[in-house]
Amino acid sequence: IPSIQTLGHMEQYLRWDESADIRDTARELLADCDATYQFISTAIKSVTSCFRTKKIVLGLDEAHNLGLGKHLQLYGYEPKDAIFCRHLKKVFEITKALGLEGMIYSDMFFRMAAPDAGYYTEATIIPPEVAAKIPENATLIYWHYGEEPGCDEYMVPRHLELNRRIIFFGGTWTWSGHLPHTEYALRATKEALPACCKYGIKDVVQSIWHDDDGCHCNHFYSLLTLQYTAEYAFGHEDDAWLSRRFRHCTGGDMDAFLAMSDYQCKFKFGEVEKGGAFPGQNPVLAGYPYGPGR
């Protein structure tokens, strides 16, 4: 399934002068601009021409500075949710005209409604008028990579309340350096998958991002997290089984893949005692021996 961005996470392109007409901020495309939608339409046509599927991931996540750059200069201040919903409607008009099924990340709906602008804030209530503007044929992607332990138990039901098809995206933590945080990824996965099963989420994806600023991690280093996810789907969770299956399917050594987390801890965040927090780390991650710094 092709996956692109149609609002935020565009800094690798927006740094070039040719993007000036469609640049709101250094990260966000300029909403409410005809040239922007021509650009998005061209991008969608280009990437979907390589695939038989009619599904496409359209991004639309983490557009934190939407409307605060060129859009502010051109049109004045406007609440983020109004700009976002108009932009979302325009993007889905493009996909509808092309006969495509759009999939979008859900975090902006929660962030715009949260008192602290957070994604996983338990007290967040999305206003009905905003929820009603989510296209009925949209698939919402709930993504959680372990940043907020325990939140899957309330975030999955909150997504289901939106009355749209839901997909869960976990993460293999390949995007923060030369080697992945494999043990942290596994701990997060072991919390998320039971919640998905409990609430009937049938589709689960494990993300292998390279992130916006580039990353040097080999995609194949994510194999252990992928193997665990597959084994869980077939009813197997214990480490001994996982180790045997991992060696049988990939030829890899489970302990060696787990040891990659030690590399991240020692060289990226400094020597720390297992079970402690890393410098700058979100306190909720302190209980994760290999949790990434925040």
Structure in words:
This protein is α/β, with parallel strands linked by helices. It contains 11 helices and 5 strands. It has a 5-stranded parallel β-sheet with strand order 1-2-3-4-5. The C terminus is likely disordered.
Quick recap of the structure?
The chain is α/β, with parallel strands linked by helices. Helices cover 40% and strands 9% of the residues. It has helices at residues 11-14, 34-48, 70-75, 80-97, 107-113, 128-131, 152-160, 182-198, 223-233, 239-250, 254-268; strands at 55-59, 101-105, 139-143, 165-171, 204-207.
Shape: globular
N- to C-terminal separation?
Answer: 30 Å
Low-confidence stretches: 269-294
Largest sheet: 5 strands, parallel
Radius of gyration: 20 Å
Q: What is the N-to-C succession of helices and strands?
A: HHEHHEHHEHEHEHHH
Q: What is the total tally of β strands?
A: 5
Average pLDDT, all residues: 89
Alpha plus pi helix count: 11
Report the sheet-strand fraction.
Answer: 5-15%
Q: Could you say which structural class the secondary elements and strand pairing correspond to?
A: alpha/beta
Strand order of the largest sheet: 1-2-3-4-5
Helix content: 40-55%
